[in-house]
Amino acid sequence: MASCLQTAQALVSAYNSWTLENIMDVRASDCINYILPASLGRKVMNNEEYVSFFGPRMAPFRNFNLKVHDTVVDEAARKVVLHMTSAASTDIGDYHNEYMLKLHMTEDCRKVDRFEEFVDSAYSAKYMAELQQHQSEPRKASM
Fold it and tell me: N or C: which end of the chain has fewer CB within 10 A?
């Protein structure tokens, strides 16, 4: 049986690989994803919905890296809480964010079956709006 900590570490490695296949491989087939706080207005997503939501958002980010600052593990409850920061680069500059993840594991602790992600909502909203605006601007032809 895997430990909850091992599965949480595999999840961090999957995001650092920055491939959707690796990210989804750590999730149970019935995993439910919450992006919080609720004030962001994000709906609860199953895996299919998460792929549709997150997959297109990955493309602009290069060299994505998560750094874990603190971890709390409750093996009996099959939960792990991670405090992390991320760094990446995009066409509009450096990206940095902060997260608290509360991961609920399957009975054997091999997969995540509930993923609660708290993000720095003010930073996320501002950065993503700027990135979207940049991506929607017409490209200038090279001479």
Answer: C
**Residue 116, Ramachandran bin (φ over 0: left; ψ between -120 and 50: alpha; else beta):** beta
- Give the sheet arrangement for strand 62-74, strand by strand: 27-36, 112-119, 93-105, 79-90, 62-74
R_g over Cα of the chain: 16
The amino acid that residue 78 corresponds to is R
Q: For residue 114, what is the enclosing H or E element?
A: strand 112-119
Provide the whole-model pTM. Answer: 0.85
Per-residue pLDDT of the chain (143 residues; tens, 9 = 90+): 679 999 999 999 999 999 999 999 999 999 999 999 888 888 999 999 999 999 988 888 899 999 999 999 999 999 999 999 999 988 888 889 999 999 999 999 999 999 999 987 766 767 677 767 777 777 655 44
Distance CA 7, CA 1 (A): 11
DSSP codes joined into one string, 10-49: HHHHHHHHT-HHHHHHTEEEEEEEEEE-GGG-PPPB-HHH
